[in-house]
Design goal:
The protein is of the alpha+beta class and 198 residues long. The chain has helices at 41-46, 103-106, 132-138, 141-152, 156-164, 173-186, 188-194; strands at residues 6-15, 32-34, 57-64, 67-75, 87-93, 110-112, 117-119, 129-131, 167-169.
Length: 198
């Protein structure tokens, strides 16, 4: 069973200063307008009693390297507390009003803007790195001498990169070159042990 029945994209909003301040606007009111048509957040949603239903939840959506990610989530009855600003706002409809903390259902989930569904985000890619200190700790004295000889045969640029870096990122092309050199010098198994992730 789904935690919601439908989703509506209200649109992208941005800050603005109105020509005349609405009469009922509190002193700390933030004025936002929908970028597509200039509709005012305060007048059309935040201050209208019938703008949302008791089963509605508001959420902000920001994009990052994982896609559209749901950020701030709160009951539509708390619309005046919505931290709107330079972001997309969606209305998640049909959320059980007895659920006390709807943010636990939706925050840090993905939002598929094509199907209007909430989706799980891909697991973050955890980089594999090897701290250079670990290479020297793992190596015998003889292996350390061999590493120095292999490095001495590299270009000045590559020598400086290796010398100045505190760790080696396995996703970088230079790591593959280093691994190839270690395989030639030590064999595949020992090269893997020396350059294993920290």
């Amino acid at each position: 069973m789904s935690d919601y029945t439908s989703i509506e994209i209200l649109g992208d909003f941005d800050f603005y200063t109105p020509d005349t301040r609405p009469e009922l606007a509190p002193g700390d009111a933030l004025f936002m307008q929908r970028t597509s048509d200039g509709l005012d957040w305060y007048e059309n949603w935040a201050h209208k009693a019938d703008a949302f239903d008791a089963n509605d939840v508001l959420a902000t959506v920001l994009s990052d390297d994982r896609g559209a990610v749901i950020q701030c989530v709160l009951r539509a009855t708390l619309v005046q507390q919505m931290p709107v600003g330079k972001e997309r706002i969606i209305v998640i409809r049909g959320v059980d009003p007895t659920i006390d903390k709807p943010h636990r259902l939706f925050e840090q989930k993905g939002f598929d803007e094509t199907t209007l569904n909430i989706v799980d985000l891909p697991a973050p890619v955890v980089p594999v790195i090897t701290y250079k200190k670990d290479i020297w700790v793992r190596a015998t004295d003889a292996e350390a001498d061999t590493i120095e000889q292999v490095l001495a045969q590299q270009t000045t640029r590559k020598q400086n990169i290796f010398r100045d870096a505190t760790y080696l990122d396995h996703a970088e092309p230079l790591f593959a070159e280093l691994m190839a050199g270690f395989v030639v010098a030590f064999g595949e198994v020992r090269a893997g042990q020396l350059l294993a992730g920290s």
